[in-house]
């Protein structure tokens, strides 16, 4: 705010107060603007060019990299998004996390002056190119000529030095948002031209806004001498609006799925199964087949929801392939017959089929079912819309029937594993699928065996009664394991290990751990979850033994002694107490794997007795944050072992023959 003073010729002075109100859009989420803060305001000049209104004399210049050009007899301008008729409240096409301040409008040039043109006026020649910003004619483009049947063209010279550093120097994503107003004579043509190649993509546009996401496959890798141009051309008296045009490396965005895949593959231990709940298949709040939209475009949810962490199915399947994990798909209760059919066609259909073409557009021509040994399919009702156990079971059976009735099923039946992920209230499982899955989430502080066993017992009571398959119970899977503290304290490695290993003791064949792959501590190994995944890698193919028993030492000065009860028949266990130290036992081939977990607040020591003749003991010690703090290989089992509070010790015992 301030004052404006006017000095008149008669010597009088008038003044008036004025004030301006600035609205920040989007609003600041982490700070506020207070009186006394310094704010600068930039009022940019409009960017526009109508080639029909250029003066008679205009200079000729060479093109600059990154500069936008238009053909003669065209007009372009940066205009507000609202000029295209866009209504944000009704948007189900463009992603809500995109900047939408202004867009580029491209149309035929209109002469608003009484100008007399020569018969071959350069300003009306579609073969010429003009810089929108500099308003100059660009020198002859012999390597990038106009196509004679097109009326308008938008061109940009691309920085090839950036592209040649790509991991795949001949494969580049091309994305943009476009709005059509009017009628085109044929498809929109997008082509990439170089010194000795030209690659074209024809795109059928509909009225209004839509998002285009495709891959550009060049016939060869680029080199430093290449001059590369992006061309967008059309025929007809139509107006188009463009925004968010991107052609570049697949790894340029920090949140790009390819970057995530590379980070996980290079740093993380093997992940045998990856649950893909981030793909909205039949999920409430999403339209059918939203999972097939291009990556980044599956984030639409109703206004009342704040969760937009959703991904394209093809992107996360590529992540699964890169880290050698079997995908676990989650089909929610809103998936209908057509969506299930489309899903199977995307996974296993020919590249010439409808959703096989969608898969090819995502950059994968082969069938996903040929890539993976197993594909898990879990059926859930996340919004709890099915009111009874009977309807939940019917829903599971119906989805399985839809899959089995598909013409593709016979070829892929040995690849699909069906999982009943429903929560049943009456205690019994009514379906005959391969597995049932449930979650194991704890917000309790577990400081010993008594707390842990009580929690696991209550969790087991909440599970539906298992049915008998052959001579054994139908296996249970844990689809989600997490441990969060109500006191906002850091989750310890011991907490996660105790829960997951107790789950395996409960005749559970698979435990999936909740991991935030975007957490930077995951990649610097300062994270208990990655240490637990390394432990899981050691447990592959191991069988679970009874948890080790505890016996009071005969000498009070010696440490607590533990041993697998199944191997020793000696001693009388002490009265059951809330001990902080647990020892989980596994047998892998002819050797043993023991995991000591310390839930207590103090360091613990233990020794082993009653085992067969030991050839060697390999010890790995981890602290509560999952950091490796010690490793040792010894030939004899004549020493005790120390476990830090909240940490674990892994012992690999090699047995003498």
Explain how this protein is built:
The protein has 657 residues and is of the alpha+beta class. The protein has three domains: 200 residues, Jelly Rolls; 285 residues, TIM Barrel (Alpha-Beta Barrel); 112 residues, Immunoglobulin-like, CATH 2.60.40.1180. It is built from ten helices and 35 strands. A hairpin with a 4-residue loop joins strand 12 and strand 13.
Using the coordinates shown, work out and report the CATH topology of the largest domain: TIM Barrel
Q: Approximately what portion of the residues adopt beta-strand conformation?
A: 25-35%
Summing up helix and strand content along with how strands pair, one would put the structural category as alpha+beta
Radius of gyration: 33 Å
Domain module tally: 3
| Main sheet summary | 7 strands, parallel
CATH level 1 class label of the largest domain: Alpha Beta
Helix fraction bin: 10-25%
Principal-axes shape call: elongated
Number of contiguous helices: 10
| Unreliable spans | 298-308, 554-575
The average pLDDT value, as a whole number, equals 79
The rounded distance between the terminal residues' Cα atoms is 90 Å
Q: What does the oligomeric state look like here?
A: single chain
CATH architecture of the largest domain: Alpha-Beta Barrel
DSSP strand count: 35
Side by side, the strands of the main sheet go 17-18-19-20-21-24-25
Which features characterize this protein?
TIM Barrel, alpha+beta, Immunoglobulin-like, seven-stranded parallel β-sheet, 31% strand, 3 domains, 657 residues, Jelly Rolls
